[in-house]
Amino acid sequence: MQKKNIREFDSFFDKRVKVVSNIIHSNVLNHKLIEEAKLKELLLENKTSEYIEELIKKKKYSTAYRFMNALQYDTVSYQELVYSMATNDMKLQSKIIREQHLDTKDNQKVLNHLHGESMRFFIFRAEIPIQKVEELFLGDESKLQFLVENYFTSNKQIAIQIAKRNNIKVQNPQIQQEIDNCTNVTENALLKNDDFLPSEVILKTKNANDYVLLKNFNISREDVYLIEDEAQLTDEIIEEILNAPQTGIDTESFQEIPQTKFTSRMNKVCLLQIALPQKIFILNSANLTSSCKYQQFLVKYATSNALKIGQNLRQDFLSLLGQIRASGVQLNQIIELSELFQQKFPQEKKTNLSFQCSKLLGKELDKVEQISNWQRRPLRNAQIHYAALDAYICLHLYNLYKQ
């Protein structure tokens, strides 16, 4: 009986060692972190904690974390591991905090590091002009200071201009001296030239002929109507939209910048754009959410027999209806442009609106204003052009697909 129990224990223990070893070595390429014989010895002699401490002393934090995870250490131990890492391997620290659900309040240095990295990534994204970044940071002194200090090495003159325009003081005395010595201050070109055009055209970084423009369809600024509140959402406008046989639709959302793995991914839908053949309505959906008139209109519109044309339109409607807490609404007559595009160009993998325009019209959509703070007022004409065009182009592309 005793020998049988020993054999059963050995069999159980060998399986346990195998399981622990597999967890430790999951996703590890080319080499073993520890042999099973050594692991078995540590487990039998109850020396795994000493071994992990040795790994930490040698700064083999990833291996130590794998051992701790395999052996199901408690939360306090993981927090101590993060503390012991100091400023080493912030990516791993972030992973540990996220996977082990550690309190972010106890890990502010990691969050600050991720915030800075995310900010730098955002600032130096090639497709976002620095003038747009400055506009987004307006009113937030800490973000503007970060922008000036980090952009200084890339383009000293622009960084100095941003500092002077916004009266920003930096911590580096040499940079601050150069800012103080600057006497010629120019305006942000994006804010100075408030034209009803794409931002890239205003900044003269691209030619107007490269982009789809509303004026190509004989749509001017006067044909775009901003509906900011219930008083402006008149019965006549509602009737005109509901009676239209087909409408192009888009929405604009706002997301906090920067985004890290610990910030909310929730987008707040701020605008609902509805395009008719000769006019476009831009509704401040965030402000209208509590309006009974808007709520009734939105449900009636979503369920109407008129064609509603857009890109990812079902998700847009779900977000809009979610904002007014309307459940069980059956969407009707929804036309997804991406599906029509794939029917026409089955070999293409990209289906975004700008790509559809480049294939069908030989021109792109300017996407600079996509990251705008759509809650801020007043909207610039370039932002209005961007939002209006995103809805109108859906109507235009649909009619091309029909042909």
TrEMBL record:
InterPro entries: 3'-5'_exonuclease_dom (IPR002562), Exonuclease_MUT-7-like (IPR052408), RNaseH-like_sf (IPR012337), RNaseH_sf (IPR036397). GO terms for cellular component: cytoplasm; nucleus. CDD domains: WRN_exo (cd06141). Residues 224-402 form the 3'-5' exonuclease domain. PANTHER family: 3'-5' EXONUCLEASE DOMAIN-CONTAINING PROTEIN, EXONUCLEASE MUT-7 HOMOLOG. GO terms for biological process: nucleobase-containing compound metabolic process. This is 3'-5' exonuclease domain-containing protein. GO terms for molecular function: 3'-5' exonuclease activity; nucleic acid binding. Coiled coil: none annotated. It holds the Pfam family DNA_pol_A_exo1.
